[in-house]
Design a protein that fits this description.
Helix content is 29%, strand content 18%. The chain is α+β, with helices and mostly antiparallel strands and 294 residues long. Helix 6 packs across helix 9. 32% of the residues are buried.
Length: 294
């Protein structure tokens, strides 16, 4: 009897130890972590480690973009987390495919970027009923008005931060045709696109975002929207078409002024004639309706 019972007890004890270790490993693996790929910084930083950083402070954001109200966060100054010297831009990659590429000139300016960290024992509110919060990591700004920070430059649910070239250098296919002057409306519109649209949309396949459709392939919105409705769609998407999972925000004049809107549309119209370097005569043909009668 002892010969049977003791080995069985040993096996049960070993199984319990293995299960306990596996559960502990799973709990550790499930902890949110932030990836950093900036120069020599190639790290995966767990939330608990970030919250222990001596530079963490409690900050108040009066007009939080994600929550549309005053929010209080435990947060870390971006400059205390990332070495910003000798790089052109940072990419903030969210878990849903949203990618904000922000120039270092903005990140080191007067608006003061911070990485808000969602505490495990005090989760933030849901962004939508039944959905997730903006955590575990969220880029917030203490004084966004000082540098004209766009609402699209507040990425939340951040998974990784990586060094990058400026958007046009990294993806030259988003540039207007070389025949267009650099001081033109089209080039000013490129800047509007880069600040407000590139975090969700690519142009000619250029960019990193995967939230919305490419704005030039296979067709450009200036080709399938009437001009007045395209302008209205950018200002208030739901007033033109809407569906339950729609995510595109509106861009009122306080975010994109009327002159900036004109520049953005000039840029889009020019890109409709410049698909990956193609000329207007090489625009993809409209496919025939197979059910239509000749």
């Amino acid at each position: 009897m002892k010969r049977f019972f003791l080995p069985l007890l040993c096996r049960l004890f070993c199984t319990l130890v293995l299960l306990t270790g596996a559960a502990a490993h799973h709990a550790h693996a499930a902890e949110p972590a932030l990836e950093l790929h900036v120069g020599a910084q190639n790290q995966v930083l767990p939330r608990s480690e970030l919250l222990k950083n001596p530079a963490v402070r409690t900050i108040v954001i009066p007009n939080d973009v994600a929550y549309k109200r005053t929010m209080t966060y435990r947060a870390l100054p971006l400059k205390a987390l990332v070495h910003l010297d000798q790089i052109q831009a940072l990419q903030f990659k969210a878990e849903d495919g949203f990618v904000a590429t922000l120039p270092v000139s903005l990140l080191t300016g007067a608006s003061q970027p911070w990485i808000a960290i969602e505490p495990p024992n005090a989760p933030w509110p849901e962004l939508k009923p039944g959905g997730r919060s903006a955590g575990a990591f969220y880029l917030v700004w203490l004084s966004p008005e000082r540098s004209g920070v766009s609402p699209e430059q507040w990425p939340y649910q951040i998974a990784a931060i990586a060094a990058s070239e400026a958007l046009p250098e990294a993806h030259p296919q988003i540039l207007p045709d070389t025949s267009i002057p650099k001081d033109s409306a089209e080039y000013r519109g490129l800047q509007v696109y880069s600040a407000h649209c590139a975090s969700c949309h690519r142009i000619n396949g250029g960019g990193e975002a995967n939230v919305g459709p490419d704005l030039n392939l296979p067709f450009n919105p200036t080709e399938y929207f009437q001009a007045s409705f395209l302008r209205r769609y950018i200002r208030d998407p739901a007033s033109v078409r809407s569906w339950p999972n729609m995510t595109m925000p509106g861009f009122p004049q306080s975010v994109i002024s009327e002159p900036q809107m004109n520049d953005l549309l000039a840029y889009l119209r020019s890109m409709a004639r410049h698909r990956n370097g193609a000329k207007a005569t090489e625009v993809p043909p409209v496919p025939k309706d197979p059910t239509a009668k000749e």
